[in-house]
């Protein structure tokens, strides 16, 4: 059995109950709570994927195929797999060289799980492009907001250094400076 088999049953109520279990477990066993948090993250991801549009599921599949490391030896192969996945989605999974009788016989032997695994969700290239562009626009807006927040924080720290240096000596101020440094690093890596 896999989580994917029960994807339709994962809802907000299940996640809420699991979150309550995590909070109760934290008081008794932090290691078990960590495992439950990891499960919560997996279930939340599955729930989001089920709720996503076909275009966003395709984007998720393609990004998963490509991975994070573009310099890796297998990147060109992963890129070809991603292209094939997009082509399959854009054509509705129809291929000119498929023997439908052999496929039907194989599916009859393997059962319904194999049929679902072999089925491909059709995605309109236009819808895919529109949704990806909207997602990129939203990401750009978030990057702009992050840059503005970093700039405001830098100005505030400069002001405090000049006029109230004692305010920068607290643990809370040190934690905020650490978070600001992490935000700067994160922003620089995306720019």
UniProtKB/TrEMBL annotation:
This is Uncharacterized protein.
């Amino acid at each position: 059995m896999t989580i994917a088999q029960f994807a339709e049953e994962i809802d907000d109520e299940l996640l809420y109950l699991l979150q309550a279990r995590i909070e109760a477990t934290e008081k008794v066993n932090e290691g078990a709570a960590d495992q439950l948090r990891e499960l919560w993250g997996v279930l939340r991801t599955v729930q989001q994927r089920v709720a996503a549009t076909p275009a966003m599921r395709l984007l998720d599949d393609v990004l998963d195929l490509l991975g994070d490391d573009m310099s890796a030896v297998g990147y060109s192969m992963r890129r070809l797999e991603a292209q094939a996945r997009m082509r399959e989605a854009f054509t509705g999974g129809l291929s000119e060289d498929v023997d439908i009788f052999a496929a039907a016989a194989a599916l009859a032997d393997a059962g319904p799980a194999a049929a679902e695994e072999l089925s491909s969700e059709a995605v309109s290239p236009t819808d895919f492009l529109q949704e990806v562009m909207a997602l990129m626009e939203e990401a750009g807006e978030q990057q702009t907001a992050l840059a503005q927040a970093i700039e405001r924080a830098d100005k505030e720290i400069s002001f405090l250094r000049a006029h109230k240096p004692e305010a920068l000596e607290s643990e809370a101020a040190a934690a905020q400076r650490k978070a600001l440094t992490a935000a700067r690093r994160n922003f620089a890596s995306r720019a």
